[in-house]
Specification:
Strand content: under 5%
CATH class: Mainly Alpha
CATH topology: Fumarate Reductase Cytochrome B subunit
Structural class: mainly alpha
Distance between the termini: 18 Å
Shape: elongated
CATH architecture: Up-down Bundle
CATH superfamily: Transmembrane di-heme cytochromes, Chain C
Strand order of the largest sheet: 1-2
Bound molecules: protoporphyrin IX containing FE
Number of domains: 1
Radius of gyration: 19 Å
Largest sheet: 2 strands, antiparallel
Number of strands: 2
Number of helices: 8
Helix content: 55-70%
Oligomer: single chain
Length: 183
């Protein structure tokens, strides 16, 4: 491996990393308190909601790699990237790739929806209404399914790029782009 490839450059800023791991812990805690923990579960849920709101704000105000404008690409580029990935020829990128970008938006939207419906269920008007409770639980199942896809995607990208992306989400740095990365 050349010196250029070994060099690591900052990619994920500290707030983005903090919000990611806070989201992971929050969703886990909400899941573990889903039955019989009443108010504790609700407060954890509000914490998760706050994390999502902060991440969305950071998507407008944050560092380049955190900004939606910087990483969300249109359907054409995303489709092209998906085809390149299937052929195993997708160029390596430092920040989110186009598929990762859409999965970021999807995960944030799903977590927001779970929390919003959870809150709805606590209001006088919707308390005890069965479809609201079922929607809250159903959206949670969809979220869990996409978290599984997210984890498989991360694992796949780690193998393809021969880089520990989980560690990169901790320390924030990734291997510098080399000429062979930009096909
Ligand atoms: C509740 C579960 C999880 C949720 C909701 C979630 C959500 C997200 C989101 C929204 C992003 C985009 C980061 C941003 O722009 O803010 C992301 C990226 C990432 N997540 Fe997670 N995540 C979860 C669990 C995990 C776990 C358990 C791991 C590690 C084993 C992980 C590893 C990563 C990595 C490595 C990235 C960066 C991917 C890249 O390099 O492009 N995530 N995750
Ligand atoms: C990521 C966040 C959240 C997750 C993953 C989550 C998940 C769940 C799940 C799976 C259940 C069980 C539903 C059932 O089996 O019928 C549940 C129940 C409930 N959730 Fe959430 N929830 C979250 C956030 C919230 C929020 C923000 C609120 C309200 C502020 C909330 C209020 C409730 C209430 C009132 C119940 C029924 C309570 C009980 O039986 O003790 N949840 N939640």
């Amino acid at each position: 491996m050349s010196k250029e490839q070994q060099q690591r450059v900052p990619v994920w800023d500290p707030l983005l990393r903090f919000l990611h791991w806070a989201l992971v812990l929050g969703v886990l805690a909400a899941w573990l308190t889903r039955e019989g923990y009443g108010r504790t579960h609700e407060w954890i849920g509000y914490g998760v909601l706050l994390v999502v709101v902060l991440r969305v704000l950071w998507g407008f105000l944050g560092s380049d790699q955190a900004r939606f404008r910087h990483f969300v690409k249109g359907p054409r580029s995303t489709w092209r990237y998906a085809l390149q990935s299937l052929r195993g020829r997708a160029p390596r990128q430092l920040g989110h790739n186009p598929l990762g970008a859409w999965s970021t938006l999807l995960l944030l939207t799903l977590v927001f929806a779970v929390c919003a419906v959870g809150w709805l269920y606590t209001t006088d008007r919707y308390w005890g209404i069965e479809w609201v409770e079922r929607l809250h639980a159903g959206l949670t199942d969809v979220l869990l399914a996409f978290i599984a896809v997210h984890l498989l995607g991360v694992l796949w990208a780690c193998i393809k790029q021969r880089e520990n992306l989980v560690a990169a989400m901790v320390h924030g740095r990734k291997r510098q782009l080399s000429k062979t990365d930009q096909q």
